[in-house]
Amino acid sequence: MTNNEVLHHIRYIFTLSNEKIAAIFQLAQCRQTDEEISNFFRKNGEQSFARIADNILASFLDGLIIECRGAKEGAQAQLNQPINNNIVFNKVKIALALKAEDIITLLNSAELTLSKHELSAFFRKPEHKHFRACNDDTLLKFFNGLHLENRQAIVEIKE
Fold first, then answer.
1. Which of these, 107, 79, 105, lies nearest to 91 by C-alpha position?
2. How large a percentage of the chain has pLDDT more than 90?
């Protein structure tokens, strides 16, 4: 999944405006203008389309963690490696303070069944013998589960 797709899904799940996205970037000391953010959401091939670099997406996800859970004491972690689905999955999990049972429930609502052991393999270090790479379909199902949960919360509030 491309970095632009990840940001697009997160924006859709939480119905974030450009202003809110800019504020989340700012929490991670990564200033993005309204025009830059708009360019991230253009279709590939459009004149002003801009690809999101790994460090920019990592900064957004770190800002999301700060937005949801508060700033961590000490220096902020910097991502010096290419971002991948496992890192995205883990950072969103941390931001939302999701436990394994919560994620399994979300995935089940999006019609993907995983055991606790299969799930924990996504959050291991790549050099661990039980590490498993998170594919695009699994990350998409996770995002779909988050969207379904978020939509249900909105419906419950309205009723």
1. 79
2. 81
What pTM was estimated for this model as a whole? 0.88
Whose structure tokens read 């883990």?
90
Res 133: pLDDT: 96
Band of residue 71 on the pLDDT scale cut at 50, 70, 90: confident
Secondary structure of the chain in the HEC alphabet? Answer: CCHHHHHHHHHHHHCCCHHHHHHHHHHCCCCCCHHHHHHHCCCCCCCCCCCCCHHHHHHHHHHHHHHHHCCCCCCCCCCCCCCCHHHHHHHHHHHCCCCHHHHHHHHHHCCCCCCHHHHHHHCCCCCCCCCCCCCHHHHHHHHHHHHHHHHHHHHHHHC
